[in-house]
Each structure stands twice: as structure tokens, then as C-alpha cells.
Amino acid sequence: MRNPRRLALPGRTVRLRFTALYGVLFLLSGVGLLAVTNLVALGSSRSTVPAENAQLRQPTLAAAQEQIGLLQTRLSEIHAVQSRQLLVGSAVALAVMAVVSVVLGRVVAGRVLRPLRTITTATRRISADNLHERLAVPGPADEVKDLADTIDGLLERLESSFAAQRRFVANASHELRTPLATMRASLDVAVAKPEPVPAQTIALADRIRTELDQVDRLLEGFLMLARTQHGALSDRATISLGRVVSAALDARAADITAGSLTVHDGDVHDGAWTRGSRTLLSRMVDNVIDNAVVHNHDGGWIRVATTSDGGTARLVVETGGHVLDQEQLSRLAQPFQRLGADRTGSGSGSGLGLSIVAAVATAHGGDLDLRARPEGGLRVAVSLPLADARAGVSA
């Protein structure tokens, strides 16, 4: 069981601890200074003799004794008044010193921690898309400089690792296309021989060709995912999500008709504009539409809408079907995650479609939201930064 006392103290930061430490040190210094001042003042007040003593010339014994008693009384009263004034002044000075100590402690702690805050801010700004940036903290060779240089070295190693990963994925995907093309050509040659080919051979060739097409799509998905996650955004333009969605629906008209699907696209309009890579954004929309068409049932429906709200352009695609588990849906944005054939009766797909959608959205400063509809089916919402339609070339 976790300690509730520790949970109740989330504000115990390093700056707060430094503030308390410096404040206590300043306060103790003030207390010591006031104590020394009080001791010196009290000692000097005791050694002070009123001037009236010097005016006594040849007094009688009784008069002298009476005068001495009066002087002692006055001296005691003056000493008591001075003590009270000194105590009040010391209390006020101590209160002022307490406030000043806290303020000075906080200022000093802030200046001490300023380089660390700078390092923290710069480190948060660096992500997988800009690993080439470095902290490059100036200053003398002290502990803060050593920490910054250590983080820069770590970023350099991470950049090299990411670059090696990109090269491996790209090279492997490219090299695998050659044997796939060779296998496909060998199948075509074997089936195209003049002598009669057994029906079993033709059926086997068709099945192998289907699997080769699936592997080819998988390699294409690898390349697209690697380019989206770690590549630079090329062919940037200002694009209308509505026009891209309309083009994607027109390209899949045959599949929509074959599945007897009803498409509700009345809310698709040209008001939702965003800026980014035309190729990647088109692929993102294609994957969302493909997901709605492939993972659907005969006679089902698809509702598509593009909206703009504040500074956000949004694409929303909904489908009907079985009631889905929201916890499982949250994993679909990861590569090779699928709900299985019990989702809509279709188990096809490489498991990269929605992960590519999520990667493209993130690369453009947006996000992907997957929601299970309470009455059954899936709601896919892609949010992207809104752009001005006059800012660039439309799509």
C-alpha cells in the first residue's frame, strides 16, 4: 500500500527545498546579527551614566543618598524602556528578515536551477522527428555543462540508432520486392504454358499470387510507416480534406457496390483545410476509408464527415456493426493489432492501416481517436491543424 502522506505532498520540488534551505540560512544569519546587536546595545546602556552625576558638587550625605536613589530609579526606568523598544524593534526586524529570507531564498534557488530548467525545456522539445537538435548549453565546465553534454551524447546515439532503423526497413523492404516479383513472374510463366495445366495447379497459383499481393502490401505499409514516423514531410501543400475524401470514395465505388454498402457523405465539404504532405495525407484518408469498407458487413453503412472547429480540421468516419471493446480499440493504432474476424466477419488486412493513420496524423501535429459506438460499430476521428485555404495549393 502506498504512503498517503507522500501522495499528499506533490509540491515538494527541488526549488521548494532550495528555497527552504536558503531561507533558513538567511534567517539564521539575521537572528545572529540581531543577537549581537542586542548584546552590544544592552552592554552599552548599562555602562552609561546620566549627566546629572557630574553636576553634584559637595552635597550633604542625605541629599547625596536621595539623589543617588532618584538617579538609580530613573536609570532603571530608562533601561526598561530601552529594553522594550529593543525587543519590539528586534521582533519587527525578525519578521521582516523572515519575509526577506524567503524571497531571497526563492530568487537564489531560481537562479541556481535556471540552467536545469533550460535543459529540461530543450529536452522536451526534442522528439524522434528532430533528433538532430542538440542542447549545446554554453558556460564553464561544471556539473550542469557535464549533464548537458551527456544528454547531447545520448541524443547523438539515438539519432544514429533511428537512422540505422530507417535504413534497415527501407533496404529490407526494397530488397524483398525483387524476389517477390520473380516469384510472381514464375507463376505467370508456369500457368501460361501451352500444354493443359491441372486445375489444382491453377488454384494453387492463384492462392500463392494472393499471398504475394498481401506480402507486397505489407512491405508497402512498412515503407510508408517508416517514412511517416521518421522521414521529412515532402510535397507540402494546403489540402482540402473534403476533396480527398470524395476522391477516395469515388476510387472505391466498386468495392462499396460489391458490399451493398450505403455511404452517407452529406457532411463532407470543403471547409476543412490542413497543410502537410499531399502523399501522406491522401494515404491517411485512403486507409480510413479502406478500413470502413473492408471491415464492414454486407448491406452495412458508412457515415463520413469533414468539419472545422476553431483551429482544428477533423475527419470522422463511422460504421455500424457489433459492439466493440474500447480497451481493444485503443491498441489498433499500434502496428499489427487487429480485432480479428469476429469484428465484422472479415479477417483480412495487414494490421498496419490504422497505425499508418496515427503516424501520419502525429507527424502533422494531429491525433487519431478511436471510439466504440454504444449501439455498435466504430467511430474513427482524425484531427489535424486547420489551415487557411488561401495559404497554398488546394487539393
From TrEMBL:
Subcellular location: Cell membrane
Transmembrane region(s): 20-41, 86-109
UniProt EC number: 2.7.13.3
CDD domains: HAMP, HATPase, HisKA
Domain of life: Bacteria
GO molecular-function terms, A-Z: kinase activity
HAMP domain location: 110-163
PROSITE patterns, sorted: HAMP (PS50885), HIS_KIN (PS50109)
Keyword Transmembrane helix applies: yes
Chief subcellular location: membrane
Histidine kinase domain sequence ranges: 171-388
Keywords associated with the record: Kinase, Membrane, Phosphoprotein, Transferase, Transmembrane, Transmembrane helix, Two-component regulatory system
Pfam families: HAMP, HATPase_c, HisKA
Keyword Transmembrane part of the UniProt annotation: yes
SMART domains named in the record: HAMP, HATPase_c, HisKA
Catalysed reactions listed for this entry: ATP + protein L-histidine = ADP + protein N-phospho-L-histidine
Entry-linked PANTHER family: SENSOR HISTIDINE KINASE TRCS (PTHR45436:SF5), SENSOR HISTIDINE KINASE YKOH (PTHR45436)
Name recorded for this polypeptide: histidine kinase
Lineage: Bacteria, Bacillati, Actinomycetota, Actinomycetes, Streptosporangiales
